[in-house]
């Protein structure tokens, strides 16, 4: 499983595309927002946590179909499914690799983009904390969506339609932590809820992802 | 005699076929009675005026929108566990009905909300979770439409329905946390002291019964259509072989 993780990371870094693209997309979304809503820093700092969260979510969505698509096309997914490792473990490793290549860079880049949106001083810690807590859930849920649509040609749009409603609870609690943090309120409740969602999906969703993958490989 | 004998498509068709016009007729009768009774023979509410009468469309459709998803969940489970094709097809047939009910509930709510709350839409927990439910219906139907192999499609949509149910419930409570409500509380509960007044209650019950029957009618009809479509495909395939 470690070997699989290393292989996926290496592919992501060397093949290009997925790794930097998500970050660049995140940057562009955040840069476009002031053009859309105007440059007043009061308004921007008010909406900054939400915009950063939605930007991270969309950037995460962008790279989801790459999780299984390439392995599906060249047949290595069939090999992985017959490997003496449970498919649930493979799915979890895929999700972890996706998080390390997409979610983690987004978490690290978020404070820099927060400056562009004049995020209040006390908001940075909680923005990073909420993204670090929430983006693993985005990756795991997204892996489920990618497993569902792996056999469908041009499934990208369908993937978004399936995954975005599943992102609602994560987005609500994540953005709530970031917003409360920026306004200097107490953040523990939504942060714990967010952690509950992340660990719950981590524990349960790989079984569903593996099940749909088995159906798709049948 | 057990309920599982209706898992046989032939048995299912033979039993529900003759019942269909009766269910449809009863549903039409109930809805017309409920609506006419509700619209013309109940007093106006002292604060809401005649706008209160949209309740006879709003409440039954909202009720069915949620119950349709629940029925799909049960049907999906039956398909996953016992692999009865009728069950999977019934779940497929229920999705567009449920989605339509969701839209009816949202639209009638907006029409009522405009004069009463002064807005067509508010990000109220109930409204928001209904919108999310509608998105779930859309995704479910899109997945059915996207996959060519019938059994694969039934399997994948069933699992999506199970996972979606968990997330739908999560979203329901998450939006509660996220924003305070404008929508009034439940006033039809069986276990509560204070409910909506009897004058409004009885026509509403008739209307709800009508919507339940309508849902059963449409699901049966949709399942029949699906079974016939499959038979036709099988016949065509056989003809091509010969």
From TrEMBL, chain B:
The chain crosses the membrane at residues 20-41, 61-81, 93-115, 127-147, 159-179, 199-223. One of its GO terms (molecular function) is heme transmembrane transporter activity. One of its GO terms (cellular component) is plasma membrane. Residues 11-183 form the Cytochrome c assembly protein domain. Coiled coil: none annotated. The keyword Cell membrane applies. Belongs to the CcmC/CycZ/HelC family. NCBIfam families: ccmC. It is found in: Cell inner membrane; Membrane. Keywords: Cell inner membrane, Cell membrane, Cytochrome c-type biogenesis, Membrane, Transmembrane, Transmembrane helix, Transport. The keyword Iron does not apply. Required for the export of heme to the periplasm for the biogenesis of c-type cytochromes. GO terms for biological process: cytochrome complex assembly. This is Heme exporter protein C. It comes from Donghicola eburneus. Its main location: membrane. Signal peptide: none annotated. It is a multi-pass membrane protein.
């Amino acid at each position: 499983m470690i070997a699989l993780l290393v292989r996926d990371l290496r592919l992501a870094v060397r093949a290009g595309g997925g790794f930097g693209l998500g970050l660049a997309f995140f940057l562009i979304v955040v840069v476009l927002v002031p053009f859309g809503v105007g440059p007043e820093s009061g308004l921007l700092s008010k909406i900054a946590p939400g915009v950063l969260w939605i930007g991270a979510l969309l950037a995460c969505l962008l790279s989801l179909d790459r999780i299984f698509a390439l392995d599906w096309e060249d047949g290595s997914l069939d090999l992985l499914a017959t490997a003496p490792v449970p498919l649930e473990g493979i799915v979890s490793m895929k999700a972890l690799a996706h998080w390390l290549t997409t979610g983690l860079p987004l978490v690290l880049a978020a404070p820099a983009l927060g400056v562009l949106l004049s995020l209040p001083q006390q908001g940075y810690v909680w923005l990073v904390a909420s993204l670090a807590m929430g983006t693993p859930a985005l990756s795991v849920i997204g892996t489920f969506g990618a497993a569902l649509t792996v056999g469908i040609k041009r499934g990208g749009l369908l993937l978004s339609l399936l995954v975005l409603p599943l992102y609602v609870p994560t987005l609500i609690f994540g953005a709530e932590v970031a917003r409360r943090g920026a306004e200097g309120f107490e953040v523990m409740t939504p942060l714990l809820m967010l952690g509950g969602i992340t660990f719950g999906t981590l524990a349960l969703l790989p079984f569903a992802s593996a099940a749909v993958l088995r159906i798709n490989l049948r | 005699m057990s309920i599982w004998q209706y898992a046989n498509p032939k048995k299912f068709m033979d039993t529900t076929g003759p019942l269909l016009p009766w269910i449809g007729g009863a549903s039409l009768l109930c809805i017309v009675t409920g609506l006419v009774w509700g619209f013309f023979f109940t007093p106006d509410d002292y604060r809401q005026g005649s706008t209160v009468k949209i309740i006879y469309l709003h409440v039954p459709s909202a009720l069915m929108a949620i119950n349709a998803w629940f029925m799909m969940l049960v049907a999906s489970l039956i398909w996953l566990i016992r692999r009865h094709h009728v069950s999977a097809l019934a779940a497929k047939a229920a999705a567009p009905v449920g989605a339509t009910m969701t839209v009816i509930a949202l639209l009638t709510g907006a029409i009522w909300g405009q004069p009463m709350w002064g807005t067509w839409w508010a990000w109220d927990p109930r409204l928001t979770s209904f919108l999310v439910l509608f998105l779930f219906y859309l995704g479910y139907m899109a997945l059915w439409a996207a996959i060519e192999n019938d059994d694969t499609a039934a399997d994948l949509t069933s699992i999506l329905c199970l996972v979606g149910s968990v997330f739908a419930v999560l979203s329901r409570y998450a939006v509660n946390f996220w924003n305070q409500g404008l929508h009034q509380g439940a006033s039809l509960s069986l276990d509560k002291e204070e409910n909506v007044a009897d004058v409004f209650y009885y026509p509403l019950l008739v209307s709800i019964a009508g919507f339940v029957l309508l849902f059963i009618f449409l699901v049966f009809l949709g399942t029949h259509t699906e079974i016939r479509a499959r038979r036709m495909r099988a016949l065509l395939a056989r003809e091509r072989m010969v």
